[in-house]
Amino acid sequence: MKITVGTFNLNNLFSRFNFKANISAIKSGTNVSYFFDAADNFKYRKFQGKLLKPKSHKKTLEVAERIKDMNVDILCVQEVEDIGILKRFNKDYLGTDKYPYVVLIEGNDPRFIDVGLLSRYPIGPITSWKEARFKDERGTVFSRDLLQVDILNEARSKRLFTLFNTHLKSNFISRFVTDIEAEKTRIGKRRQKQAFAIAKIIKSVTRPNSSFVLVGDMNDTPDSVFLEEFTKDAELSFTNALANMEEIGEMNHTKYPPTDHFWTNRFSPQAGVFHYNLYDQIWISNALLDNLNGAWVSRRKKVGGDGSDHDPVWIELEI
């Protein structure tokens, strides 16, 4: 039996209409008023003073078409606001019967972006590790969550493998930060702690011969010193399943092309300087190494991205 497993950062799949209307901005000043029919019949969300708006219909369609083209059995997603929008996206954009099983648990992100899962296969127990903490620190370990989901066979009589989906610390640096290099180091160390926590958690809930898959937006490269916790423990033994991935499709011409196809995210820290990184990753346990049939990345057409600034990746397993 062949099963395909993928991951895709959907880039701000928000559901809200602010104040149950489409308000484009928060206006400041003494002469601005908002009126409502019912005093308790509205809400809005903002981040750093800005309204969080729904993803445009055009971009949502583009993301949906990319998912349809992938046609994977299980898709882990990041940057989704809530279970409601994920279910509605599944029904309205992917088709009612595309993925009968939908999972999302609210995480820790102040921008309200969560991790979730769409599956054609039945699911078993679901665990959120969003409340994981280090004893010597205040606050939670994960910026979003580490979502753990058991994937079952169609008869629900057997666990095929366990999926772990996460979205590690962002590389975003506020314009108010004066020491950029120190902030980069702080962010990297935070991501390193999250990787350490992931390794510790997975080791605590699996055995050396367990079948599991870790996916997500790691916001770092597989060979980064900040992700070395994924490979340093011989008993845990993660393997990068995308090491030999193939590229499907081709990005339109750009003045600053990548040097290879091992990337899913493109960004420019300054004009004329572009970085291409494999931020979206899939790691598998040793028990699944012989089951790996292949790995792929679906390449965007537009340089800036087709509905998302990330490109999806997936693998095929023989179970």
Uncertain regions spanning at least 5 consecutive residues: 17-23
Structural classification: alpha+beta
Q: Looking at CATH, which topology would you report?
A: Deoxyribonuclease I, Chain A
Fourth-level CATH superfamily: Endonuclease/exonuclease/phosphatase
Structure description:
The protein is an alpha+beta fold and 319 residues long. It has one domain (2-17, 44-318): Endonuclease/exonuclease/phosphatase (Deoxyribonuclease I, Chain A, 4-Layer Sandwich), CATH 3.60.10. The protein is built from 3 helices and 17 strands. It has helices at residues 57-70, 83-94, 180-205, and strands at 2-13, 46-47, 50-51, 74-80, 101-104, 114-119, 123-128, 146-152, 159-167, 212-217, 238-240, 246-248, 265-270, 273-277, 280-285, 292-298, 313-318. The strands form 4 sheets. It has a 7-stranded mixed beta sheet with strand order 5-6-4-1-17-16-12, with helices on one face. Strands 7-8-9-10-15-11 form a 6-stranded mixed beta sheet, with no helix packed on it. The protein has a two-stranded antiparallel sheet with strand order 2-3. A hairpin with a 2-residue loop joins β2 and β3. The chain is globular and about 55 Å long.
In short:
The protein has 319 residues and is of the alpha+beta class. The protein is 16% helix and 30% strand.
Task: Describe the protein's topology.
Elements: E1 2-13, E2 46-47, E3 50-51, H1 57-70, E4 74-80, H2 83-94, E5 101-104, E6 114-119, E7 123-128, E8 146-152, E9 159-167, H3 180-205, E10 212-217, E11 238-240, E12 246-248, E13 265-270, E14 273-277, E15 280-285, E16 292-298, E17 313-318
Parallel strand pairs: 1-4, 9-10, 12-16
Antiparallel strand pairs: 1-17, 2-3, 4-6, 5-6, 7-8, 8-9, 10-15, 11-15, 13-14, 16-17
